[in-house]
Amino acid sequence: MDAPRRTRNGPRRSEAARVAVLRAADDLLVDSGFQAVTVGSIAERAGVSKQTIYRWWRSKIDILLDVLEEDLPDDVTSRPPGTESAQEVLTGHVTHLNRVFTRSDTGRVLFVLIGHALQDATTASALRNQVLDRRRGHARARLRNALACDAPGALPRQEADRLLDLLAGPVFHRAFMTGRPTDPLFAERLAATVLTCRQGTPLDGAPAAGPTL
Amino acid sequence: MDAPRRTRNGPRRSEAARVAVLRAADDLLVDSGFQAVTVGSIAERAGVSKQTIYRWWRSKIDILLDVLEEDLPDDVTSRPPGTESAQEVLTGHVTHLNRVFTRSDTGRVLFVLIGHALQDATTASALRNQVLDRRRGHARARLRNALACDAPGALPRQEADRLLDLLAGPVFHRAFMTGRPTDPLFAERLAATVLTCRQGTPLDGAPAAGPTL
Amino acid sequence: MDAPRRTRNGPRRSEAARVAVLRAADDLLVDSGFQAVTVGSIAERAGVSKQTIYRWWRSKIDILLDVLEEDLPDDVTSRPPGTESAQEVLTGHVTHLNRVFTRSDTGRVLFVLIGHALQDATTASALRNQVLDRRRGHARARLRNALACDAPGALPRQEADRLLDLLAGPVFHRAFMTGRPTDPLFAERLAATVLTCRQGTPLDGAPAAGPTL
Amino acid sequence: MDAPRRTRNGPRRSEAARVAVLRAADDLLVDSGFQAVTVGSIAERAGVSKQTIYRWWRSKIDILLDVLEEDLPDDVTSRPPGTESAQEVLTGHVTHLNRVFTRSDTGRVLFVLIGHALQDATTASALRNQVLDRRRGHARARLRNALACDAPGALPRQEADRLLDLLAGPVFHRAFMTGRPTDPLFAERLAATVLTCRQGTPLDGAPAAGPTL
DNA sequence: GGCTAACCGAGACGGTACGTCAAGTCTTGGC
DNA sequence: GCCAAGACTTGACGTACCGTCTCGGTTAGCC
Fold first, then answer.
1. What is the pLDDT along chain A (213 residues), one digit of tens a residue?
2. pLDDT at residue C87, as a whole number
3. Is residue C93 a contact partner of residue C147, using CB atoms and an 8 Å limit?
4. What is the CATH number of domain D74-201?
5. Which residues on chain B are in Cβ contact (under 8 Å) with A159?
6. Cα(D46)–Cα(B187) distance, rounded to whole angstroms?
């Protein structure tokens, strides 16, 4: 089981083609908008045949999911752990989210995919399973770590998720609904608000009452 | 331009057809999903010809915008104004938003339209101009009114918008991204948090510094 | 039932498109060979969309069947009936067949369709039902009429068909298999042979014995 | 060029693969029809790779030509030469042709190849060169031999070919065009007719006049 | 009451993209 | 060098939906 039981013959999947397709899809989306992203146009720009695309992806949405998975930047702070205050960590996270949403090419891809997910449940779950859940896991861990410094006692997973919703939601909303990005001031205040919320007493007994939360 | 220069002859627009189209589009979307909503299928289900549709709408998105405009429920509270605390008003708004997003047929329409708006700038501005801005105006007024009781002094428009983002964002995020709706407890805590944020001192001098906010 | 019970609304089938498609298919086949006859290329040359073709025909073979039905020339002799000898009628028929097979554009179409029929039973029966049977009926009638002059007594249908096979077969075989057409001398001798066969005594009692013939 | 300049290394062509391919092509054609005969399906059924096929054949038509060449039965009569009358020889040939066309698996292959030849000149000449001409040569020799008994004096080659056309044509025509096979009675009468034609005087001076015949 | 413009149903039309299929070529690693 | 496996380019296939258009029939409203 540890050894490749049988060495497969024949040509392997062309890495060059794979990369060219992902890059072509990304470029087309950024340059010309989603309606220009066609399996045919991706194939042409990537210098690849349509059939090669359909051999490895089931749809252009599938391609964009792979683009997202590869390109979506993680929230990595350069500072060593433990040297940041909780406020700084949260502010940094908000800023990171905003930057991803509004400035990166990958943000465009994310927009389109969320847009498609809102119209199609299959895309929605694929997006969650393939991309979002992992990111949410990272963010949750970071958050728990940051808050553990200030408030001793474990931060329950559900509670962490609530806080993440409070953090990400407004950034999201501003970027998507109003079209105006989150400015640094808003980021800072948002972080502070969430921290305040965390420290408030009303939460203490609450989580037990929220069954599915 | 002011006067209809000439009295028109012939029959006027058929109200029956208009309603049948809107209803057919809504039903199709709710019953069979967005990919089943085509101009042809709407026409068929409405017992109307495609030409009649294209005479009055430019695309199926246009139809859905009209559906949304007609059906999207306003946040109407049964209580007379002035008898609710700010906390109650905010909690009610959050609850209303959540109900619209997750329970109504119109929520499906809204989802789809936001999804399309994320892929197409034209749809985005149409959605904002035709539907969202008006709702936002109502919500802002309601918010200003509610907060004026507790905190004398006008609530600046930009500040009100910030608070609305704080309120709507997490509801939005939960409904869209995690797929789990907002529960009453979360609604209450969210309202409280936003109120806390409003009363905090850090905001006092701040708005002046936020240029584009 | 005699009256068109209800006048249909809407646009009728475009005769121009129909004719253009048939003509384009014929031209492509004659100019560039069968492998150049593609639904796409027909559409392009006819100035028509692919969908219009698929609305009215199920395949390019269907189109060619229509071409054949419209263009395949009948065996019409200029002479008034009764002024030709049986030999002349038969020779004329053979010459006609040969000319159709080897010289006309329609002959190319016929070749291709027979070729396809040899590979596909559906095409074979369509070809027979739509085109060949009618021609065979005409030829049979002409043959019976011609032979009735010389040999009193009705020519049974089965017998007529046998003679038609004897007549058409060799023309066919030369055109298809050897690639060399039937010359006038061969035509004359073929006709004479068939006549001889007809007058011979061996046939008299025979047809009764041939069950499925 | 005269000497194989160097003894080749490595394995020679796999006879097993060659046979498997021919057999697979034949089986597929007989079992599932021509449209099921693809290079891929042949390779799969033969347990052979596509490359191996393309190394030795240029197309699936090429394969079928080989199938035909190997399997097409010769017209071998069990009787010793000289013990059959001309009528018997001719009747036997007609019967043989009919059996090949209508009953054997190879007949299916022949049909398909003739069908393809009618659509493609290259296939037509390949079919003639590789298969048909040799068979025609055998048939011609047999015919000349048979007729020499009854009618002393050499049967010119062109004349023999004419007679072969007269013989094969109707069998062909019945099998291909009408779909009804040749019955024994028809075979006998056909042979008799051709013999009659042969013995008639009109032929004597004729061949000289037919230039390309 | 007739005229006429605008409405309506039906649905054919030119397009664009889809997703599938087969042909024929090329690449890899084993024998 | 042959072979199995199979990825690759190419190009036709047949389908779906778009948005436009053309019919014949049906109402208003004004003369």
1. 444 445 778 899 999 999 999 999 999 999 999 999 999 999 999 999 999 999 999 999 999 999 999 998 877 766 666 677 888 888 999 999 999 888 889 999 999 999 999 999 999 999 999 999 999 898 888 888 887 755 556 778 888 888 888 899 999 899 888 777 788 888 888 888 888 776 543 433 333 333 322
2. 85
3. no
4. 1.10.357.10
5. none
6. 68
Q: Is D28 helix (H, G, I), strand (E, B) or coil?
A: helix
Q: Specify the CATH superfamily of domain C15-70.
A: Homeodomain-like (1.10.10.60)
Start and end residues for every CATH 1.10.357.10 domain found in chain B: 72-200
pLDDT computed for residue C158 by the predictor: 82
Place of tokens 């005269």: D2
Output the pTM of the full model.
0.87
Q: Which structure tokens are listed for B194?
A: 């936003």
* A102 close to A207: Cβ distance less than 8 angstroms: no
Distance C109 CA to F7 C1' (A): 39
- The fold for domain C73-201 equals Tetracycline Repressor; domain 2 (1.10.357)
Inter-chain residue contact D197 with C189, CB threshold 8 Å: yes
> What is the number of residues in chain C?
213
Question: CA angle at residue A45 from A43 to A50, to 5 degrees?
Answer: 5
Nucleotides of F under 7 A from a protein CB: 1-30
Please report where in the chains the tokens 């009692």 appear, as a residue.
C205
Instruction: Locate the chain C residue with the closest alpha carbon to D116.
Output: C115
Selected from 1.10.287.130, 1.10.220.10, 1.10.10.10, 1.10.10.60, the CATH number assigned to the domain covering B15-67 reads 1.10.10.60
Q: Tell me the CA distances in angstroms from C32 to C72, D115, D158, one per residue in order.
A: 20, 18, 33
Q: Helix, strand, coil: what percent of chain D each, to 5?
A: 70, 0, 30
Q: How far is C-alpha C170 from the chain's CA centre?
A: 15
The fold adopted by the segment(s) A75-201 is Tetracycline Repressor; domain 2 (1.10.357)
Q: Cβ contacts (< 8 Å) between A194 and chain B: which residues?
A: 193
Extract the tokens encoding D206: 């004729």
From residue C65, alpha-carbon distances to A155, C56, C129 in Å are 77, 13, 10
> Strand E contacts (CB < 7 A) among B residues 150-209?
none
pLDDT tens per residue across span B177-200: 877 788 888 888 888 888 877 654
The residue written with tokens 């007679």 in the block is D163
Question: What size, in residues, is chain D?
Answer: 213
Buried/exposed C8-33: b ≥16 CB within 10 Å, e otherwise = eeeeeeeeebbebbbbbbbebbeeee
The protein footprint on chain E, as nucleotides within 7 A of a CB, is 4-31
Question: Which of D195-199's residues contact partners 24+ apart within 8 Å by CB, and which partners?
Answer: D195/D86, D195/D87, D195/D90, D195/D150, D196/C193, D196/C196, D196/C197, D196/C200, D197/C189, D197/C192, D197/C193, D197/C196, D197/D163, D197/D166, D198/D147, D198/D151, D198/D163, D199/D150, D199/D151
- Place B152 in a pLDDT band, splitting at 50, 70 and 90: low
Place of tokens 């009453």: B184
What is the torsion angle, in degrees rounded to the nearest 10, for the CA atoms of residue B83, residue B88, residue B89 and residue B91? -160
